[in-house]
Amino acid sequence: MSRSPQAESISQQASSTEMSHYQVLQVAPNASLEEIRKAYQSLALRLHPDKARHADDTIDEEGVIVDFVRIDEAWKVLRDVESRRVYDAELMQHTCREEYFVNEILTEKDFTYDPTEGYRYHTCRCGGLYILPEEELASEESCYLSCDECSLVVQVDVV
Fold this sequence. Notes:
CATH superfamily of the largest domain: DnaJ domain
Strand order of the largest sheet: 1-6-5
Number of domains: 2
Distance between the termini: 57 Å
Low-confidence stretches: 1-9
């Protein structure tokens, strides 16, 4: 039995463009933890390397392992509330590089470092957080961050 079209699409899309964890697990970004868990379990059962080996001797073992690892990584990030919050903030930063209506202009000094979680954040007026991805600290360009609770956007300038 050959790999399913969905399994092939994970490997093929991952090699051509970087897929989000939501795309890997084939769920919406606003999916509940239960929906994410079910999607993970379904994909993990179907794409587990041991099952694929028994099903077909001509399979691409490396591709099966890569797919399974990507599914597992996505689950590990999205199952935890805090890591999902950080991931969503980073995803927004990477996917939304266009001009926004900027609510506030901040610098790195305006962000508080949380040593237990390992990230910098600034509290939005709604009570949500603007999370500053680590790679943005080394950047020489301004970046835009979206609140994880509302639609407000801030610009973070490099000083």
